[in-house]
Amino acid sequence: MLLIERHLTRQFAESVFAVAVVLLLVTLGALFADLISEIAKGKVPAGLLLSQLGLRSIRFLTLVLPLALFLGLLISISRMYAESEMAVLASVGMGPQRLWKPLLLVSLPIMVVVGLASLWLAPLSASRAKEMIEVANRSFLIAGLEPGRFVELPGKGGVLYVTELTPDGTRFKQLFVQRENEGRVDIITAHEGSLNLIGDTERYLRLKDGFRVEGAIGSRDFRMMRFETNDVRVPDRESGNKGDDLAADSTWALAQSGKPDAIAEVNWRFAMPLFVAILAVFAMPLARSEPRQPQYGLVLFALLVYLVGMILLLLG
Which helix (H) or strand (E) holds 24? Predict the structure, then answer.
């Protein structure tokens, strides 16, 4: 490889890397805000914040890396035109076609990474993230419950307190629950109990040997009863949508199913690495500009081209 080709390869790689870092930071910030919202709603336990952030970010690599490659190449090549580097290269017999080799050396690794992420890593990470949430939803750990501390139930469904809790978060001792609904208060105590799951979303407490007091807030009309066994409904967890289920399935399983939605998901996964190649090819002619021409318009134009390409992929 010629020295100038090594220089161009390093220049392209540095530009793409810088853009990728910025885009990844923005993406991680958006994912972090989304996870904080889910934690506040009780859909994700606080202890899974970092693991969920890492697992979910893998899926976005297939969206961030193609844009980072396209923007990085456009900025780097257009800067060469703006600073008359292309004119200098042309004077020594190196035309624009000599840029293709450095461009391919930078684009091919990104194409491979996007292909691996789209076809294998993203479904694997989505499946793992979904599994962790499902395991947490079968226990009180989803509410961040700790023995000896008052904790608000998901969805502001009440206040919960236990003195002992099993490691899996499904069985407890010495429970206290206070719930308010439409001006009435409901207080329950129990010696022991367990959390049970019905279907995919319904959850309830099975309590043993306790008392229940209920009545209108601010009045003296309260009713107390003692029970040997009592089932108490707690806020249901939200089930995942169909798109999330498909995202967690392996590419081979989707291809074998033959369903239209599954085939569409497979086509999307195979299209992403090809989309990287298309953007890399288009970067060369689109970056051509006059010396001293501002480059800010190229960034907006690149975003527009990327959005149009993504829309075409979605429609296809």
Answer: helix 3-40
pLDDT, one tens digit per residue, over 127-175 is 998 888 777 766 655 555 678 888 776 656 678 888 988 877 778 889 8
Residues 6+ apart with CB under 8 A from 291: 81, 82, 83, 84, 87
Q: What pTM was estimated for this model as a whole?
A: 0.74
Q: Are strands 171-181 and 184-198 parallel, antiparallel or unpaired?
A: antiparallel
pLDDT digits (tens, 9 = 90+) for 80-105: 888 878 878 877 777 778 888 999 99
CA distance from start to end of the chain: 40
Distance from C-alpha of 289 to C-alpha of 187, rounded to nearest angstrom: 73
What would the DSSP string read from start to end of 261-294? Answer: HHHHHHHHHHHHHHHHHHHHHHHHHHT---TT--
